[in-house]
Write a structure and sequence with these properties.
The chain has 421 residues and is α/β, with parallel strands linked by helices. It contains twelve helices and 18 strands. Strand 6 and strand 7 form a beta hairpin.
Length: 421
């Protein structure tokens, strides 16, 4: 780690349990789940679909100019909104930062076209009742919006954010599924520590509220089969967990060189202490064992010069699947035994790249409140998950030092340590 300390001065969140820090935190305080029956499309051909869906979201409140919405996916709208909220909270204006010293690093997901944007183009390629790919170059392209691809490129999240904030410094996109958020924060810190920027907007966003994604998830049996009581389905580390639930959302953070933040009189919310990442081979039939996550945690603790006993809480990946939770629990028990663990996907589901960012927002707000939100639906301990899970009324008085972890199905893992100001 560089001696150049990096702090967090702004938090922006778009989630199924609230847009903005106050509604988001109030839902956590009230143990209110955001998982419900899907509303964004007709789910009847797929069977009942439950999700952590962001409701009452109006991008026109945050996207400027509004004509940008024509080339902005829902993922991009979330990224811009979260970034705007973070900068507003931090009191950052165009006059307070040199645009050339203002960077952006964002994690992004696979982004699909809205069906109504491509349906007519698809139909134009039918010949005698069957789709004919040979028609695509003529009939298909003729009906395609020329800028359609701008909605689908993952790097457009960081691009839109940088345009909105006139951030002309280093700009990067991470496309690593569930580890994207924490690695984006780590890269943002590195940019500042390398001396390439004074300020970086870092975070991630994702929205997979798309019929094709749901159909694929059903075929591959990734989702919990339960749906009768949506709020009770996600049960991280619980003995009776049955699988994950998908969601959508975003988190963004204003990272600053401490000296720069103090010079402009910013309120410091948290400091980034250290991080680690690793990879565990899961290809060619090799069974996962959680070793990648364990290495990432050890690296984060070493870079932070933090002993496990000093941690106040762990904000876990907590996907709520049989295998993933067991491997994560074993890695945590091996590296940070007995540290209290909370798993917040129980409130909003798996947000993909956006998960780590939204979970990070919760840990930062927990410092100010001196209270760690509980894991919802944790009723019975699983012997295969030997963790000190925070449940019930939450945890008050924990040390203001937190470890956040995420991993993805390819075997990549990331860990981040943050502390109170």
């Amino acid at each position: 780690m560089s001696s150049q300390e990096v702090v967090i001065t702004g938090v922006g969140v778009v989630s199924p349990i609230g847009i903005g820090r106050e509604p988001f935190w109030e839902s956590l305080r009230s143990a209110r789940s955001g998982i419900r029956r899907l509303e964004s499309f007709d789910d009847s051909p797929l069977g009942p679909v439950i999700a952590g869906e962001v409701s009452d979201f109006d991008p026109k409140q945050y996207v400027r100019p509004r004509k940008s919405l024509k080339v902005m996916s829902r993922d991009g709208q979330f990224a811009v909104t979260a970034s705007d909220l973070a900068c507003t909270e931090a009191g950052l204006t165009e006059e307070t930062v040199d645009p050339d010293r203002f960077g952006v690093v964002f994690g992004a997901d696979r982004i699909r076209n809205d069906l109504d944007e491509v349906a007519d183009t698809y139909r134009a390629c039918f010949v005698e009742g069957e789709f004919d790919i040979r028609q695509w170059g003529t009939a298909g392209l003729a009906g395609t919006f020329p800028l359609l691809m701008l909605k689908n490129l993952p790097n457009m999240l960081a691009s839109h954010v940088s345009i909105l904030r006139d951030a002309r410094g280093p700009n990067n996109t991470l496309h690593l599924a569930s580890v994207s958020s924490l690695l984006a924060i780590a890269e943002g810190v590195s940019v500042i520590q390398r001396g390439a920027a004074d300020v970086v907007l870092a975070g991630a966003a994702s929205s997979r509220m798309h019929p094709i994604d749901w159909a694929r998830a059903r075929i591959t049996r990734q989702l919990s089969p339960e749906h009768a009581s949506p709020a009770a389905v996600v049960r991280p580390f619980d003995l009776h967990r049955t699988g994950e639930v998908r969601g959508e959302g975003a988190g963004a953070f204003l990272l600053e060189r401490r000296a720069f933040a103090e010079a402009r009189g910013a309120t410091i919310l948290a400091r980034v202490v250290g991080w680690g990442s690793s990879y565990e081979k899961r290809l060619n039939g090799r069974a996962p064992d959680g070793s990648g996550l364990a290495r990432a945690i050890r690296t984060a603790l070493t870079s932070s010069q933090v002993a496990p006993r000093e941690l106040g809480h762990v904000n876990a990946h907590g996907l709520s699947t049989r295998l993933d939770d067991r491997l994560e629990a074993q890695a945590l028990a091996e590296t940070v035994p007995d540290v209290p663990v909370t798993a917040l996907k129980s409130y909003f589901g798996n947000l993909g790249p956006g998960s780590g960012a939204v979970e990070l927002a919760a840990s930062i707000l927990a410092f100010a409140a001196n209270w760690v939100p509980p894991t919802l639906n944790y009723d019975q301990r699983d012997p295969d998950c030997p963790l000190n899970v925070v449940a019930g009324a939450g945890l008050a008085g924990a040390a203001p030092l937190a470890l956040l972890v995420n991993q993805n199905v390819s075997g990549q893992a990331a860990a981040l340590v943050i502390g109170a100001p």
